[in-house]
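Run log, item B.
One chain of 63 residues. Sequence copied directly from the ordering sheet:
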Amino acid sequence: MAFAVILIIVLAILALVGTIFAAKDTEVRYGENTKSNIGRLTAIYAVVILLSILVIGAYIFIK
């Protein structure tokens, strides 16, 4: 079970880092357009990671 929790957290963090690196581009217009999107995506990832940890904790507590 601990392995699954660690795997989920690692995958979520890798997805966040991958999204940020994918948004890095040399085009000025592209960077301006995606600046707000990166903020929203980061917030979404943070909420999903937090909720995942809470749900896994609740599952472990109930079981």
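Observations after the first pass:
- The chain has a mean pLDDT of 79.
- The CA atoms of residues 25 and 31 lie 6 Å apart.
Flagged for discussion on Thursday.
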